[in-house]
Specification:
The complex is a heterodimer. By secondary structure, chain A is an all-alpha fold. Among the domains of chain A are: about 80 residues; about 100 residues, no CATH class; about 80 residues, no CATH class. Chain A contains 22 helices and no strands. In chain A, helix 13 packs antiparallel against helix 15. Chain B has one domain: Alpha-Beta Plaits (2-Layer Sandwich), CATH 3.30.70.1060. Chain B contains two helices and six strands. Chain B is flat and about 55 Å long. Chain B starts with a strand and ends in a 10-residue tail after the last strand. The mean pLDDT of chain B is about 90. The chains are: A mainly alpha, B alpha+beta. The interface between A and B is medium-sized, with 44 and 23 residues. Chain B: Belongs to the YciI family. Chain B: InterPro entries: Dimeric_a/b-barrel, YCII.
C-alpha cells in the first residue's frame, strides 16, 4: 500500500468532517484513527474509493467518540443524521487547513507538529521520532496546538507567509528519523502550490527542489558534510533541478519578488554551474543584494561576503565581512575561508579552529576541525622544509 | 525548536543564595523540594517541551582502556575538587529565551526555610543536525 498516497488524502477527509459540523480537534483525531485503520485493512481489502472509505470510517469514529461524550456535550442532534457533503465551497478547505495549522497564535514547533499531523497525515509517533522527543511530549504539543486554534474560524483567510515559514522549517530543520521530512515538506509545498497561486509558494517549492536535488552529493559515505564547492555535481538530480528552475522561472516572470524566490534564484545559479569556478558569482552577489533588501538578515550579508569573495577576490570578501558584527554565527568560518583563499594560512587555521568551537552542529564542527587540521599539517610541513 | 541540557551540580557550580545543605532541611522542606521538581517536569510534559530527566548518584569511578587483553583500569572515588553532576533535564523549546526562563524556574525550587535555593544551573545547547539550506 502506498502510504504517501494514503496520507495525501488526509486534508480532504478532515475538511469533509469539519464541514459536516465536527469540531476541528475531534475531527482530526477521528481522521488519524481512520488512517491507522486503513493501514491495517487495505493491504488485504483495498477499497474502490479510498477517500470515500476514509470519510465513512472517520465519520463513524467521530460519531462514536461523540456519542461517548454526548451526555456532556449534548450533540445528539448530530448523531442521527449523516449529512451529505454540501455543494463545493467557494474557498478551498485544504488551503484553509494549512492556514489554521500555521496560525500565528501557535509557536513554530507547535505549528510544525500540527501541520505534519493534520495536513501531512503523519502519526504522533512518527513526528516524535522525527524530532527526537518522547511520543507523550509530542502528543501534548499537538493537543495544546489544537486547543490554541480551537476558537479560530475555519473560513478565516490566513497569511501565506506564516504557512511558508512552517514548511520551510520542516524542510530545513528536518532531523533524521523514519520519516523523510525534507521529502514530506516538498510534498506539502507541492500540494499547496497546486491550490494557491502565489509566487512565493512557487519560490519556496523551487528552493526546496533545487536543494533536495543535491542531497546525494551533500554527505560523504562516512556521513561527513561535503561543502558545495567540493560536491560531485554529477550526483545532483538533474530532473529535480529542471523542475525547480521551471517553477522558479514561472514565478519570477510575475514580477512579485520575495525572499524565497531570491533564495531559489541563488540555488538555481549554483545548479547551472558545472563547477564552482564556472559559477556566475557576480549575478549571485546581485541576488544577495536583492535578498538583503527584502529581509535585512545578517546571515544574508554574511553569505553575500562569501559570494563577493568569489566574484571579486578574497580581499574584497574580507572587506565586505569587516562591516559585519563580530558575534554573528558562522562569521569566523567565513573569515577563515577567505583568509585561506588569500593565502594567509596561519590566520585561516586559527579561525577555522575558533569556528569549530562555535559550530551549532556536529557535522559542521567536524568539517571545520578537519579544515583547521589540514592547514596546520601543511604549515608544519612548510616549517620542516 | 532546539534542545537544551539543564545540568544540576552537587559540586562545581557557584554557591547558591540559599546555601544550606539538604541534610539540614526539615523533612517537609525536602518533600516540598521534591514536589516542586516533579511538578516542574510534569508541567513541561504538558507544554510538550519535556524530553528527559535523570538524577545521578554522587559516587562514580573513572575508567580507562589499559591495552589489549587487559581489564580496564579504574580510579576513584572522584576527588573533592571535581565538578560533580547531580542530574539533568533535557528540554525541547522554541527559543534560547524560553530555555533561560525554564532554567530560572527550576532554580527557584524551594530549599531551607521554604525559600528558593537560587541554585546555579548549567544550560547547554545540543549540537543539532545541520540545516539543509546553508548558502
Amino acid at each position: 500500500m502506498d502510504e504517501v498516497l494514503l496520507r495525501s488524502l488526509t486534508p480532504g477527509v478532515l475538511t469533509v468532517l469539519v464541514r459536516r459540523g465536527a469540531d476541528f480537534a475531534a475531527a482530526e483525531d477521528a481522521v488519524q484513527d481512520a488512517l491507522v485503520e486503513a493501514v491495517r485493512v487495505w493491504p488485504a481489502d483495498p477499497p474502490r474509493d479510498a477517500k470515500g472509505w476514509l470519510v465513512t470510517v472517520a465519520w463513524r469514529r467521530f460519531l462514536d467518540a461523540n456519542r461517548a461524550d454526548a451526555s456532556r456535550r449534548r450533540r445528539e442532534d448530530l448523531v442521527d443524521q449523516e449529512p451529505e457533503p454540501g455543494p463545493a465551497p467557494a474557498v478551498d478547505d485544504t488551503l484553509q487547513l494549512y492556514f489554521l495549522c500555521a496560525h500565528p497564535s501557535l509557536t513554530p514547533s507547535s505549528a510544525v507538529a500540527l501541520t505534519l499531523r493534520a495536513v501531512g497525515g503523519l502519526t504522533t509517533r512518527q513526528i516524535a521520532q522525527a524530532y527526537l522527543v518522547p511520543e507523550a511530549t509530542m502528543a501534548q504539543r499537538i493537543s495544546r496546538a489544537k486547543r490554541t486554534v480551537s476558537g479560530v474560524r475555519f473560513e478565516q483567510p490566513g497569511d501565506a507567509a506564516t504557512v511558508l515559514r512552517v514548511l520551510y522549517l520542516v524542510f530545513n530543520e528536518g532531523y533524521s528519523g523514519d520519516v523523510d521530512l525534507a521529502a514530506e515538506a516538498i510534498r506539502l509545498t507541492r500540494q499547496l502550490a497546486a491550490r494557491f497561486d502565489h509566487p512565493e509558494v512557487a519560490g519556496l517549492l523551487a528552493l526546496m527542489l533545487l536543494h533536495h536535488a543535491r542531497r546525494a552529493a551533500r554527505t560523504a559515505a562516512d556521513g561527513s558534510l561535503v561543502p558545495l564547492a567540493e560536491q560531485d555535481r554529477g550526483r545532483w538530480d538533474t530532473g529535480m533541478i529542471g523542475e525547480g528552475v521551471a517553477v522558479l522561472q514561472a514565478a519570477l516572470v510575475r514580477d512579485r519578488l520575495g525572499e524565497f524566490q531570491a533564495q531559489a534564484a541563488i540555488a538555481a545559479l549554483h545548479a547551472d554551474a558545472p563547477a564552482t569556478e564556472e559559477t556566475d558569482w557576480p549575478q549571485i552577489v546581485e541576488w544577495y543584494d536583492e535578498l538583503a533588501r527584502l529581509t535585512d538578515s545578517p546571515v544574508v550579508r554574511l553569505n553575500r561576503a562569501v559570494a563577493v569573495g568569489e566574484a571579486d577576490g578574497p580581499r574584497a570578501g574580507l572587506a565586505a565581512l569587516a562591516a559585519l558584527d563580530g558575534s554573528l554565527p558562522r562569521r569566523a568560518a567565513v573569515a577563515a575561508y577567505l583568509h585561506e583563499r588569500d593565502g594567509d594560512l596561519a590566520t585561516a587555521a586559527r579561525l577555522y579552529a575558533e569556528a569549530a568551537r562555535k559550530a551549532p552542529n556536529l557535522a559542521e564542527r567536524d568539517h571545520l576541525t578537519r579544515r583547521a587540521a589540514r592547514i596546520n599539517a601543511r604549515l608544519n610541513a612548510l616549517r620542516c622544509d | 525548536m532546539a534542545k537544551y541540557l539543564l545540568l544540576k551540580h552537587y559540586r562545581g557550580a557557584p554557591a547558591p543564595v540559599n546555601d544550606v545543605p539538604m541534610d539540614q532541611w526539615t523533612p517537609e522542606e525536602i518533600s516540598d523540594h521534591m514536589r516542586y521538581m516533579h511538578d516542574f517536569a510534569a508541567r513541561l510534559e504538558a507544554t510538550g517541551e519535556f524530553v528527559d530527566g535523570q538524577a545521578l548518584a554522587p559516587e562514580g569511578t573513572f575508567v580507562r582502556y589499559d591495552g589489549e587483553g587487559r581489564p580496564p583500569v579504574t580510579d576513584g572515588p572522584f576527588a573533592e575538587t571535581k565538578d560533580l553532576v547531580a542530574g539533568w533535564m533535557v528540554i525541547d523549546v522554541d527559543s534560547y529565551e524560553r530555555a533561560l526562563e525554564l532554567a530560572g524556574e527550576l532554580s527557584a525550587a524551594p530549599g531551607a526555610g521554604g525559600k528558593p535555593i537560587h541554585e546555579w544551573l548549567e544550560l547547554r545547547p545540543f549540537l543539532s543536525a545541520p540545516p539543509t539550506i546553508s548558502e
